[in-house]
Amino acid sequence: MTRDPKPPVCVLGTGLIGGSLLRAATAAGYPAWAYNRSEDGARAARADGFEVSTDLVGTLRRAADADALIVIAVPMPAVDHLLELIADYAPNCPLTDVVSVKGPVLDAVRRHGLAARYVGGHPMAGTSESGWAATFPELFRDAVWAVGVDEGTHVDPWSRVVRLALDCGSVVVPVLAAEHDRAVARISHLPHVLAEALAVAGAAGGPLALGLAAGSFRDGTRVAGTAPDLVRAICEPNAAALLEVLDDTLTVLTAARDSLRADASLAELVEAGHDGRQDYETAKRWSITGVTPGDHDWLAAFAEAGRGGGVLTELP
Hints:
Largest sheet: 6 strands, parallel
Number of helices: 13
Distance between the termini: 12 Å
Order of helices and strands: EHEHEHEHEHEEEHEHHHHHHEHE
Number of domains: 2
Strand content: 5-15%
CATH superfamily of the largest domain: NAD(P)-binding Rossmann-like Domain
Shape: globular
CATH class of the largest domain: Alpha Beta
């Protein structure tokens, strides 16, 4: 994506995702600046040459004057406060987010009267590290970026969000908020819960177990290295969907335990798990074409394409 001039971007929060987005957008040629609550974090970003302020109102006024795309990049518990101030100081700016759940953010946006300019977003990228020191502009390279196509989404802000995601090196999956949250409960939030449980089980084995631990334990517990408060902020807002998939998983594990007890066999679980991994390994993406933003039923068409494995690799 090389079209110029690129419209400005204002990032609220310079942790791993927001800070990496500030770096990536700047590298892609966007005029970009940010707000960060912590002076230490803001100072570190400024030391690396980025415009980051702890003055939220001033940052939003600047965004309003420039018609910047505002990107909310804070954990879900802090979203409502930011939306309140956005509604006061920059209500006409296009608005997106990078929060790990979409339904609760969309509900909050609607409560604050900002839905007409909002497009949900969630780059499926990250590490177990956090803070400005962990940021890097290539975080989104070849990643999937979920972009909302819920009813009421407008073409102009949607196109700006898609263009930003593509310019950061991602491919875009159009998705409805509720369907996004059910999907990430299975492939993102459940892995956090299972990693924590596996880490607890390993530690309970004491020094011998931990001394023998190798690749499978390391890989299976990687995300358990994420700060506990951040894990809670990621998973708990998606409680309903996560509870459903936890119940499904407990049913699978209970059946495996019963089979192991009765027949000394894990065959059913292992074979189904292997098949599931193969499904992941062989899943194919395909490029969405033939849908023009703004046309009749364009949102439904994009949602159906995303549901079927389609991605956007260029702005329609």
